[in-house]
Task: inverse folding
């Protein structure tokens, strides 16, 4: 760990103006600093700011950026109306980590690609231009969608997958005091040839909240496939909300973890489902569209057939199709 | 005075005659409260004014030469020095007794410790280690793994008995299958740490070590000093599992730096260091051949293995260790191939040999039972040999059949159905069984036992307690023999100034050091009998009162000064003339998810026979640990090596998946009553590694019984199962 300066933001203005890396729960950042993957000269602690509330507004719920994962998962409103998010949160990390991790911090966590963590190894995300050692290396847990020749990292969050399923938007306050509301697919960038730039945040931006619109009609589910029962990142995870009316799928939302550099959602795959009678064949067709551009890297090839199985199983559950 | 025994003859079962009731009964570890309240001081925690802190610098390339440029970091805050002298390539192997490889400026694997950076604080040292400029002369001719190795060492004399090829050809049923296991790391909770303090030419090192007698010679040899000038202290150890058998880089680095700086130096490994520089269990490929005749008798067994290690490293995983004696069969063949690779050193990780060898053998036995249409338990019981099938030696106590039968009864084995028959929603349920076997070993040991007139006693030895319960069982043995409540006995361990015992490894610690304590106490009993005026055989000691020859006297009346005896156990003819091993049977019930291939272990049962059980609680904990380790080897654990550099990529506990609480179901343990008269004077056998032997195979056999998928590549992660469903 490099020596660093620690500053506590007392006001949001402090947070915008101070030049430094924002820290909240620190569950990922401190690990990265110890390994010198991240070497900020200044840490800006925002945990005293007033962003700890979950507020119900008209047609939405607003989750303060400092609400912990544990509190969010346990909140009656979330459990009742957004169970996909509650389940996604509880599928992530461990109890101890969830007690510290915050909503905003969880969105900002970095990939678990092992080469990103080892400063002696090339990694375009950590050291732009050095190459991607995961390609041709140990890549079993890495991405099959949205990758580039420069980076095949996944975004590790479960929470973000639940939020992506629910069309969440990230509320960002800019240094000028303006507010932006970004859906997660605009919040997260794809790696392209700049994998070091992961989000749309600009200098001085502060995540202050996440907004959930009223939940879409239908049943919700979150399913995570992993190598051990707890405290393991997703091989594949899926959040889904599906409604069935008169025997046809009226609406469907599906988001995936473990597949891409951001919580992955494909509206074309959802369109395949809408207006159709649920069936295994239909689910396979949706998976075909979802995975049309999937690219395995060898060790992670299995994620393609595994995703197909998860899609079929989750959609079968939600629509009452027997497998 | 010394009470000496060379184990040439069967000894009387004195611990069945004594009446204190301290032995066998479940007793919590006396040091447990210290450990859970932070009062047991581990090596790195020792407070010492003026101690500097060192951090190991790791090689960033897999092969070549290096030179450090200390001037690049001299101006950094807290800088004290950067040292490369005597840095070992890796840890010493267990019982090596000499220095580990020290190869100067050469690099043979990525992550190799090449220097220690020392500063006032740990944080400063870590920063300096990261900033240190290192000039590499890189050699690109890297053998990243067994597949690309240019040098493969064959075992000189592969064992070959009869004609296995013919037995296979003539067999009514046979299995010829190849199994693979990934490498493992011990991943002990306490990372390796050392604090070195020089006083003139005398060196004291507080470290986390399993075998102080050997470690003292290894460290002295590494430093080029006289072992008489070195004292090692290791009273508390946060898990070893083989990773602390030999002296390792942090202790050598701390000693070198402390000498140079003239002040104490502490070096603590990071978790990444532990994964990269501490011995790994080699990955293995194993070809198993089993031949069965029409009567269900084995006629042939073959086990050939492929593994890897660094150049000149004196260790091979004894993969076929248990296969030599577990089952009958006239035609037998083994082979070993060690690829020389640029990977960290392979060495002992809990149950070297059986941990992976039994995965393959017991998986193959399940395949054979399936092929022959015989119940897996019946197949095993029918093929238990009368004498050692390769050298004809008699066996000592051998309760394998009882373990299989009693275990089956307790587990409800009769409810087992055909693969695919038992379904609960998406989940298929199955049961599996596997035998357990672990060679029993005795090692020379000494311990001093002192009885005080006030009815307290002291046990002193350089023996270690690596979390296994040594403090508890040595105290219990002394208490039982001296007729004292166990809480009246104090046990001092982990100091090379104390009488030298076996150390902890190979599951021999309890029986070896325990026998030394037994002998020391026996010597005291002899002296008390003289004073009481009875024969030692007639002496009865209980609750501080001696009875014998129509006399009954409190201890205080028999002694006005402490009585002290050194118990000295030596191995004897019994170690060679009789084949000794612990045996057991593992049972597992698993659920396999038909969508994802995820496996959840629903319950496990182990029936274990390991001679006299000294403490039912610590013994059960050891077996639990073995069962849990079995879950890890079967389902989750495996080192991932980069295919280009050989580097261990998953070098932390986030990505090296040891089982978590949720992976571990209810674990049941049965002890099958046994005394092993050939083993030692306390009739006990090792149990620490027995609990792991075969445990993982019971799980993969249960997977087969659940869903019909035969897992031959370990660990059985979801991707290796769902594609077959």
Result:
């Amino acid at each position: 760990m490099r020596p660093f300066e620690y500053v506590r933001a007392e006001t949001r203005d402090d947070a915008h103006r101070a030049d430094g890396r924002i820290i909240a729960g620190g569950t990922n950042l401190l690990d990265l600093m110890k390994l010198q993957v991240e070497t900020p000269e200044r840490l800006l602690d925002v945990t005293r700011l007033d962003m700890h509330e979950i507020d119900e507004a008209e047609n939405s719920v607003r989750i303060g950026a400092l609400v912990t994962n544990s509190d969010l998962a346990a909140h009656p409103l979330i459990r009742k109306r957004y169970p996909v998010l509650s389940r996604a949160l509880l599928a992530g990390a461990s109890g101890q980590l969830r007690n510290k991790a915050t909503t905003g911090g969880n969105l900002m966590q970095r990939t678990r690609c092992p080469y990103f963590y080892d400063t002696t190894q090339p990694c375009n995300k950590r050291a732009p231009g050095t190459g991607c050692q995961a390609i041709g290396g140990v890549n079993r847990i890495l991405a099959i969608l949205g990758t580039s020749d420069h980076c095949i990292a996944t975004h590790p969050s479960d929470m973000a997958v639940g939020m992506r399923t629910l069309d969440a938007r990230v509320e960002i306050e800019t240094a000028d005091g303006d507010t932006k509301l970004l859906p997660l697919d605009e919040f997260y960038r794809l790696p392209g040839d700049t994998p070091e730039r992961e989000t749309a945040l600009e200098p001085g931006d502060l995540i202050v909240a996440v907004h959930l619109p009223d939940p879409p009609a239908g049943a919700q589910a979150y399913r995570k496939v992993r190598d051990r029962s707890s405290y393991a990142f997703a091989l594949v995870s899926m959040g889904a909300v599906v409604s069935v009316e008169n025997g046809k799928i009226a609406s469907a939302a599906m988001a995936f973890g473990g597949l891409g550099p951001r919580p992955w959602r494909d509206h074309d795959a959802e369109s395949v489902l809408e207006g159709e009678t649920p069936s295994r064949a239909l689910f396979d067709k949706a998976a075909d569209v979802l995975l049309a551009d999937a690219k395995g890297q060898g060790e992670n090839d299995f994620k393609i057939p595994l995703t197909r199985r998860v899609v079929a199983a989750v959609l079968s559950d939600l629509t009452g199709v027997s497998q | 005075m010394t009470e000496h025994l060379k184990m040439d003859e069967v000894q009387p079962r004195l611990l069945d005659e004594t009446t204190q009731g301290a032995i066998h009964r479940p007793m919590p570890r006396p040091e447990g409260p210290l450990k859970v309240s932070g009062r047991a001081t581990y090596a790195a925690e020792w407070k010492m004014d003026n101690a500097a802190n060192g951090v190991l610098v790791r090689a960033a390339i897999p092969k070549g030469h290096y030179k450090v440029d200390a001037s690049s970091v001299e101006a950094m805050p807290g800088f004290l020095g950067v040292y490369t002298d005597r840095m070992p390539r890796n840890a010493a192997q267990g019982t090596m007794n000499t220095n580990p490889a020290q190869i100067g400026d050469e690099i043979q694997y990525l992550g190799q410790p090449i220097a220690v950076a020392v500063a006032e604080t740990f944080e400063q040292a870590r920063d300096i280690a990261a900033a240190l400029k290192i000039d590499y002369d890189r050699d690109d001719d890297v053998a990243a793994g067994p597949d690309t190795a240019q040098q493969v060492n064959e075992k000189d004399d592969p064992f070959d008995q009869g004609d296995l090829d013919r037995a296979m050809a003539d067999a009514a049923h046979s299995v010829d299958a190849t199994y693979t296991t990934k490498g493992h790391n011990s991943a002990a909770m306490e990372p390796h740490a050392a604090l070195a303090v020089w006083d003139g030419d005398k060196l004291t090192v507080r470290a986390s070590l399993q075998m102080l007698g050997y470690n003292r010679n290894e460290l002295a040899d590494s430093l080029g000093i006289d072992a008489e000038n070195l004292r090692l202290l290791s009273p508390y150890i946060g898990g070893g599992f083989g990773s602390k058998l030999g002296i390792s880089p942090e202790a050598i680095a701390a000693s070198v730096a402390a000498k140079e700086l003239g002040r104490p130096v502490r070096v603590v490994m990071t978790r990444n260091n532990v994964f990269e520089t501490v011995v790994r269990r080699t990955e293995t490929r194993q070809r198993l051949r089993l031949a069965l005749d029409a009567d269900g008798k084995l006629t042939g067994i073959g086990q050939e293995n492929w593994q890897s290690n660094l150049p000149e490293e004196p260790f091979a995983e004894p993969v076929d260790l248990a296969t030599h004696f577990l089952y009958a069969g006239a035609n037998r063949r083994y082979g070993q191939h060690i690829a020389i690779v640029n990977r960290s050193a392979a060495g002992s990780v809990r149950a070297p040999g059986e941990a992976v060898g039994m995965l393959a053998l017991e998986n193959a036995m399940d395949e054979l039972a399936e092929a022959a249409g015989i119940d897996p338990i019946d197949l095993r019981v029918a093929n238990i040999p009368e004498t050692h099938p390769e050298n004809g030696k008699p066996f000592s106590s051998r309760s394998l059949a009882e373990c299989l039968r009693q275990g089956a009864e307790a587990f409800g084995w009769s409810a087992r159905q055909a693969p695919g028959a038992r379904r609960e929603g998406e989940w298929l349920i199955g049961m599996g069984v596997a035998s357990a076997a672990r060679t029993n070993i005795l090692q020379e040991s000494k311990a001093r036992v002192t009885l005080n007139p006030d009815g307290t006693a002291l046990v002193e030895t350089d023996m270690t307690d690596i979390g296994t319960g040594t403090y508890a069982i040595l105290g219990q043995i002394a208490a039982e023999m001296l007729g004292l409540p166990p809480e009246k006995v104090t046990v001092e361990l982990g100091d090379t100034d104390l009488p030298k015992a076996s150390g902890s490894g190979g599951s021999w610690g309890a029986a070896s050091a325990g026998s030394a304590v037994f002998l020391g106490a026996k010597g005291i009993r002899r002296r008390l009998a003289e004073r009481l005026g009875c024969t030692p055989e007639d002496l009865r000691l209980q609750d501080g009162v001696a009875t014998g020859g129509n006399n009954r006297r409190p201890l205080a009346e028999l002694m006005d000064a402490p009585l002290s005896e050194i118990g000295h156990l030596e191995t004897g003819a019994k170690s060679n003339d009789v084949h000794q091993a612990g045996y057991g049977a593992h049972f597992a019930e698993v659920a396999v998810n038909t969508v994802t291939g995820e496996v959840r272990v629903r319950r496990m049962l182990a029936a274990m026979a390991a001679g006299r059980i000294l403490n039912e609680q610590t013994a059960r904990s050891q077996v639990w640990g073995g069962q849990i380790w079995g879950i890890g080897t079967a389902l989750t654990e495996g080192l991932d090596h980069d295919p280009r550099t050989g580097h261990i990529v998953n070098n932390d506990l986030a990505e090296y998946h040891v089982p978590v609480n949720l992976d571990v179901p209810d674990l049941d343990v049965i002890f099958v009553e046994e005394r092993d008269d050939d083993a030692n004077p306390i009739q006990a056998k090792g149990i620490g590694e027995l609990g792991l032997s075969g445990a993982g195979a019971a799980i993969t056999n249960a997977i087969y019984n659940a869903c019909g998928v035969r897992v031959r590549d370990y660990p059985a992660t979801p991707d290796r199962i769902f594609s077959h469903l």
